[in-house]
Amino acid sequence: xxESLTERLTQIFRNLGGKGKLSEADVRxxxxxxxxxxxxxxxxxxxxxxxxxxxxxQALGAxxxxxxxxxxQLLAIVRQELARTMxxxxxxxxxxxxxxxxxxxxxxxxxxxxxxxxxxxxLSKKGRHPLLVCCDPQRPAAAEQLATLARQxxxxxxxxxxxxxxxxxxxxxxxxxLRDVVIVDTPGVPPGEAPPGWLAQFVKVHSPxxxxxxxxxxxxxxxxxxxxxxxxxxxTGVVLTKLDGDARGGAALSIPARLGCPIVLVxxxxxxxxxxxxxxxxxxxxxxxxxxxxxxxxxxxxxAGQELQxxxxxxxxxxxxxxxxxxxxxxxxxxxSLGQLLARIxxxxxxxxxxxxxxxxxxxxxxxxxxxxxxxxxxHIIGGSRKRRIARGSGTSVQxxxxxxxxxxEAQKLMRRMRRARVPPKFSHPLES
Length: 433
Prior knowledge:
Elements: H1 3-17, H2 24-40, H3 45-59, H4 62-65, H5 70-85, E1 100-105, H6 112-125, E2 130-134, H7 142-152, E3 157-159, H8 163-176, E4 181-185, H9 197-206, E5 210-216, H10 222-227, E6 237-241, H11 250-259, E7 263-267, E8 275-277, H12 280-287, H13 293-317, H14 322-334, H15 338-342, H16 349-352, H17 355-369, H18 373-377, H19 384-394, H20 398-420
Parallel strand pairs: 1-4, 1-5, 2-3, 2-4, 5-6, 6-7
Antiparallel strand pairs: 7-8
């Protein structure tokens, strides 16, 4: 995410930090580099100019030039203004009405229908009870696609092929089944065309509390131009999809300022769980290579909290096994790929991009999955013949099986030493602190 922009900005601040004291000329040169980095990232020129204007106004004062750590002071100002450019404060869905209606609109190919499924799952995790409704009379198999997603996220589905006459039945179903949020998928609009006329009438009649515009992050600053045709529908927020594949960041930095409309959610992968709230301050930190530890902890708690808590308890009891380790790996994988998780930790972006890390994790899981339950619980019984069988079953080598067993044995020794040292429970696992 934003790899090229992050790399260029990190290098600029590394160079400034190496100078110690900064002159006004140093600061101006650094700001020129930041401007070039933003424009290369496909940030709209006007957004870049306004952002750098605010930074320059603050950066050339005594607070930076006379500071003991001028590069850090400048970094703090850029961080603050990046977050401001992206909206400043995180915005939530309104979810007004009984049931609340969330109308999802956007251009064709932006990931709108997939986002509806992800949104339904996300709301379910928050304790809401959504109903997915297809109001797309144009695209073939639109209803089938949304129905499939509904089954995947375990949410009921309703088809309204004629939105003007069929949607009231969807609202009635939602009330009967005690569904408190109705998520409405609508037709994707081809480039250069206006949204269908019935959408404006739908908004007028049903007054949805949220009108979410789904845009593809890979379109860069052009996303703001694409969005213009949807603003008359009363767009309340933007969902930016495919952010995990956006190496530049132009859309995230341009949309809030150009549209005057907040980004509320972002898609960071293809899985149903890959939808997150958009926090401008955290995103600014990630753009500047400062990581997002709070987001990492929240993601792990949401997707793997119970398993990690259970594993921490087993560690304290001294009964942690390979079966527990496999459960941990499976749980953490639900929170995202290893690369996605490591990218949130300051200083580990380079390691996050190493494909071998993910391959090693897959091999480890395959080895443990090829063991019997008894072998996972009592790895000391694994002899030569069992190792050969496990290696064949996992598509690895006996040497790799030996290495995993040796690493696990060392980990068990460490756990025993920790128990003897009586490490306080609150330090056993970061999620328990």
